[in-house]
Design a protein that fits this description.
The protein is mainly alpha-helical. The protein has a domain at about 30-80. It has two helices and no strands. It has helices at about 10-45, 50-75. Helix 1 packs antiparallel against helix 2 (about 50-75). It is rod-shaped. It starts with 10 loop residues before the first helix and ends in a 12-residue tail after the last helix.
């Protein structure tokens, strides 16, 4: 039996890792959206902006969280959407 110069993980490991990463990323994006939306709603009266403008701001924040999570995945092959090492 010859050994491959590039040992690959088992299919089960890859699927489990992808599920873990996807769940982590979705959780982070939704949490960012909710936090930004609530923060935007708190500021709607003092800044005289509408609820839909606050939702748009929250959407931009969630999109930024999504991009950050994807960059973290490309930067370091882990099952986390965090940029911190070892997470």
């Amino acid at each position: 039996m010859s050994t491959s110069p590039f040992p690959l993980p088992s299919t089960q490991t890859v699927i489990k890792g992808a599920k873990t990463y996807a769940r982590d990323l979705v959780e982070r994006v939704l949490a960012t959206f909710l936090q930004a939306f609530v923060g935007g709603l708190v500021l709607t009266t003092p800044l005289d902006i509408g609820m839909w403008q606050a939702a748009a701001v929250a959407g931009v924040a969630a999109a930024a969280a999504l991009v950050k999570g994807l960059v973290a995945r490309v930067r370091d092959v882990t099952n986390s959407a965090s940029l911190a090492k070892g997470v």
